[in-house]
Amino acid sequence: MKRTLAALLVGLTVLTGCGGATPSQQAPAAAAKSAEVGKITAAELLKKVQAGEKLLIVDVRTEEEFQAGHIEGAKLVTLQSLPDGAKGLGKADQIILICRSGNRSTQAAQLLVAAGFTNLVNVTDGMTAWEKAGGPVVK
């Protein structure tokens, strides 16, 4: 009987993760999973811009790409600078992320979610789609 009880206690200790992450260490991962990143097409974004909506658009491309052409009013925060480069942005503010094709902005969204940002929207197909939709570009 004592052996059975001892075996159960050892098994319970192993199953509960003795020496594993504490609840406070697990919290950021749980928060990251709960924050979902929205999506918007370039055409939908263009309608919002044309309607004069106040938007926070963050371009995560390189400075050279940004200078070659970007959405008017977009803020440059390169993917390489994240998450530190986003320190001036509000974690609860809606942030629309854009890059050339949508890949780097998806990576940026993942980094920002892990840093506690909760209201992110990714532009599908990025600046390529923006230009195809007839969106104006500032050089």
Report on the architecture of this protein:
By secondary structure, this protein is of the alpha/beta class. It has a single domain (28-132), classed as 3-Layer(aba) Sandwich (Oxidized Rhodanese, domain 1), CATH 3.40.250. It has 6 helices and 5 strands. The protein has helices at 2-15, 23-34, 42-50, 63-68, 103-114, 126-132, and strands spanning 38-40, 57-59, 75-76, 95-98, 120-123. It has a 5-stranded parallel sheet with strand order 1-5-4-2-3. Helix 5 links the parallel strand 4 and strand 5. The longest helix has 14 residues, at 2-15.
What tags apply to this protein structure?
single chain; 139 residues; alpha/beta; Oxidized Rhodanese, domain 1; 6 helices; 43% helix
* Corresponding CATH superfamily: Rhodanese-like domain
Q: Which range does the strand content fall in?
A: 5-15%
Q: Helical content, roughly?
A: 40-55%
The CATH level-2 architecture is identified as 3-Layer(aba) Sandwich
What about the largest sheet?
A: 5 strands, parallel
How do the helices and strands follow one another from N- to C-terminus? HHEHEHEEHEH
Taking all residues together, what is the mean pLDDT? Answer: 83
Provide the CATH top-level class.
Answer: Alpha Beta
- From the 3D structure, determine the CATH topology: Oxidized Rhodanese, domain 1
For the secondary structure, the number of strands is 5
Total of helices: 6
Helix-strand blueprint:
Layout: H1 2-15, H2 23-34, E1 38-40, H3 42-50, E2 57-59, H4 63-68, E3 75-76, E4 95-98, H5 103-114, E5 120-123, H6 126-132
Parallel strand pairs: 1-5, 2-3, 2-4, 4-5
Helix pairs in contact: 3-6
